[in-house]
Queue: 2 jobs
Job 1
Amino acid sequence: MFIDLLIGAVKAVVVLLLVLNLTALLLWFERKGSALIQDRVGANRANLLGLGARLGMPNLGLINTLLADPVKLFTKEDFVPDGADRFLHWLAPFLALFPVLVTFAVVPIGDAVTIAGHRIVLQAASLHDDALYVLATIGIGVYGIALGGWASNNRWSLLGGIRASAQMISYELAMGLGVVAVVMTFGTLSLQEICRSQGGVWFGWLPRWGIFVQPVAFLMLLAAGMAESKRVPFDLPEAESELVSGYFTEYSGSKQAVFMMTDFAEVALIAVLLTTFFLGGWQVPYLYRDGFILPGGVHWALSGPAVAILGVISFFIKTLVLCCLQLLVRWTLPRFRYDQLMRFGWKFLVPVGLLNLVATAFVIVLAGH
Amino acid sequence: MVPISYVFGLSAALFGIGVCGVLVRRNIIVMIMSIELMLNAANLAFVALGRSLGSTDGQVIVFFVITVAAAEAAVGLAIVISIFRSRETANADEFNLMRW
Amino acid sequence: MTAWLFGFLATLALVSALGVILQRNPVHSLMALIVTLLVTAVFFIALGAVTIGFLQAIIYAGAIMVLFLFVIWLLNIQAEEREAGHLALKSFGALAAAALVAELLAIAGRAPAPEAAVKPSPAYGTIATLAAALFSHYLIAFEATSLLLLVAIVGAVALARRMPRRRSTAASPAAASVSATGQDVSAPEVSRRAASA
């Protein structure tokens, strides 16, 4: 009993720390990656006792954003504008961050491992209705943004909040349709089961990943997910050239840092969900419970813990690749207009999602499941 | 396991708060919210009763109630918007004409 | 559900429900209502109706309440001043509500005792059980619901549409509200499909 509670607590803390570290890593990648794309150096001022130069680097590199950015943000004045709703102004950033963080609880980062007689599922909380839980928490995430915009008592903030909430609930629909198509394909709502059923190969060489069965749903979820995270092609809620910075115009210091963290945590969340649904989650191609079986029939035996560790590593590699893809898109595409955004969501993604759903249902019935 | 009558009691209290809201508040939006509160209280009673009978019917009814609540909220709020355009108020006491 | 969990959740539900009717700012009322709805969703899950609990969180708390938020913003409803009149009316309302609660509590006292309660099967409350009931016994009601939603979409758009001859200042929130209306009534469609999966 006690040991189970302990295992649960450790899993929760580990998942939370992984997410927060991923967030920080993304911040660094965003700053340096954008500099690379725009042909400049980027983030090269922070220095500590000339340490970077002594190690032969122009500055502290990774430490720069991991340490200097948070220190800068958390030591700034926390300003609340006149006439603002103080309580909601304070609550909104956390209301935005919390649903995103708790969503990671159901994401499986690896298969079940057995340590000292305890079977541990590498998933902070395993429900039977994980997919519904994900949709629910993403739906609740609207309020932090909307209230942040409203509570600031600022026209720009309010416009940003309205844009954000309209955009988020519109794209939630497309997202829901994509998730439903995936759930129909695998016949289960449990993310761990979805990962498990993506093991093995077709035709002797093609991994049984969801992306090969549901390519349309993959693209839909990618587009809808990027719109949910409100980043560049879809960053109407914080469009700098129109709304100063949208719903968090009146936020400074640590509260703004929390909003930024929400942004990156959402990017990580989309990447994690896409990995789980379409890229096999923790599955490594050709890796089975007792080792690799390559297409040519070559067998390479591995022990159980090694297989589990490889699975976790593969999960994080896929997640990072998808995160980088999203950041790349962010620095490549210009911003949509608001009518284009709504048209894309309502008149393109939703009909395509419905057609995809009908096609999926036909195939399932014809295949005789 | 808590007796099912406790859940009924909670549901009754929530329903009463909803009724009180509709009777006491004059802001039309808050009145509609109070109606949602009453629907919600009824849903709770349905689920609790379904559990004590071991039947799914209670949940099915809640499913339908949620759907109808969505339709009700959409149409109700559209009516509020269209009244507000002509009367410029959200106070239910001011809606005293049958035409607009 | 253990007693302490019930006590905690029930207190939370009652306090937030009181918040709905006592707050003078409609946005604060709405926040309190969202808390009530989420607590009820937790109650549903604790009572074994897991799927319905999540649907409540997705549709009720996640979509319908956003529609309320939009309308509050669109109409720019400010916090009410405390008005002096209507004291008799208000006390009558409170008394009537109290009488109703007393009556309902008396009925609730006659609910079946816990030992009479049936032990539910493991499949109770799962999406498969719910879908099986929806698509067999309740099929006609289910289809009628989709018709209802269609009518509601058309009705909401027709009612909330701006008359061409009248022009007022709030242009962009109106568009947002219309799209929110459309989304809102179609949100159950998603869950319907989720239930069918």
Job 2
Amino acid sequence: MKDLRILLDVTRTHLLSRFKQTAIATLGVTFGIGTFIIMVSFMTGLNGLLDGLILNRTPHIQIYNEIKPSERQPVDLYEGFADNLNVVRSVKPRQTQERIHNGAAILNYLKGHDSVRGATSQVNARVFYLAGSIQLNGLVNGIDVNEEIRLFNFGDYIVRGSPEDLLRTRNGILLGAGVAGNMSVDVGDRIQVSTVAGGLFSLKIVGIFQSGLAEVDNVQSYVNLGTAQQLLGEGRDYVSNIHVKLYDIDEAGPMSRRISDQFDLTALDIQTANAQFETGTTIRNLITYAVSITLLIVAGFGIYNILNMLIYEKMNDIAILKAVGFTGRDINVIFISQALIIGLVGGLIGLVIGFGVSVLIDNTPFVTEALPTIKTYPVNFDPAYYIIGIVFAMISTFFAGFLPARRARKIDPVEIIRGQ
Amino acid sequence: MAYVLEARHLDKYFEQPVRFHVLKDISLSVNRGEFVSIMGKSGCGKSTLLYILSTMDTDYTGELYLAGKKVTGQSREQLAHIRNKRIGFVFQFHYLLPEFTVLKNVMLPGLKLGEKSTEEVREDAMAKLRLLGVDDQAHKKAARLSGGQKQRVSIARALINDPEIIMGDEPTGNLDSKNSENVFQVFRDLSVSRSLSLLVVTHDEDFARRTDRIIEMGDGMILGGGHAPAPAS
């Protein structure tokens, strides 16, 4: 490829001898790519944060026993009416227990499953928080603290105290921030809880959690599994919910259908439970890409313009090169390579600037109620965006250089030389 | 042995602005080592003819031979290679690449040919520049040279691949008499010492008179002197 070296030598001389123009064209790309990186990193970072609000704490599959009418009524079972059109009016839900039958075995089965990252059981108990004569509605979740931390980032939402304290303290409770505020209690205080069945319990507040969703923070609190089972007066095998986290979130749908069929339980997958959040993500991504691509196209036009001008200025050079034996293809290569070098250099600088500004944003303080552990703006440093950025820079500059280069290729040297 | 350059029955038309028969049945030949000039009034078609002979213009009918080989009908890539290797050019307006050094200007066709290493091409280029007495300018940018110097550099460039023929389109047209004389002497030396063929379009009668042969053109036809004596076998 000796030829290429000579052509690149010409390219270099052209670019360096018009340094100002080259710099401006390069800056155009730098601006486009830099903005693309900043936009994408920041937007996807925010997206990740918003998704995380839901994804991190929402199980991919929730398994529970739903109170609902039987699908097959007794009349359907009787063969004598099989050919008839049977209508049953005023169907009532079936009397059934809230607990998951044989929960421990199901949990073990799920934990052993290949595509399951983890599964944890919960015991839900409806309670009243007692403040003097006032009763506040509440929901106590009995949880396996370690598994909740591992699978659902439970620790991120604890604003006072720590989840480990729950493990260490018998009859400890992690109170929702809203509940704690309403009752004006704090870590270390005790709180009276009465169950629906009428039992009265005194629990020690070991921490406050804040999910960012007021409706949750105002009613919910967490205790150990055992404590919740005690509240309900049930044994150690009582489980009301099983939460499953998978390796691949897309498997949630089919997996939940399988579980539901196999165990005759209700299994709710995350896509069904949170249909709105996927739409939001898609649209935010769409906006991000639309804006970024617009920026890159604008940069592309800048390059097109400058290369066009360059070719006008270099008419003589092109004629000479052709006269002394350079082919149209050579000329094409010279101008395309100029475009690509502008794209590459501009793109790389753009990546560096984009990265720099992203780091800056990443260190800008950002306080949100929703995520107590977040202290700065979220930025996504996914290397894929940097690869997309540089590839797009090369592609757009290639197309910007393509037409001018083709014109240069077609220039008839005789016309130029005779025109003098 | 064949002629270095031979044209048989060339015809060319300009289509714009109206169809115009610019070259009419041109046949000519140039021998090895011959110094030939083409003369004629402005607009008689002599430059047009030169660009056809130089293979840059392919829009003609007739046949063109270079050292006995037919050139007509070859692809653009092949023609570019022929120009690169076998034809040297000297134009009226020097036509150097202004942003490159003098040395690079001379080297470029050699590098393009790719038959020698960069080092060898550099040495060759320096030798040609020395031959033309401009080797002291080698590392200057071409744009900084005087007109006479530029023309000598462009002759050096024409020589870099040791072509069989050098073609000039009014190579002295833009030079004062002293520099014109200079260029003529260089051509004369090349023709004698290296038996290089030269074909030069010129307006300058003094210049033309001192060449070996004058091809006289008028109204797109050759009026006289078109044919070289049959080459010695």
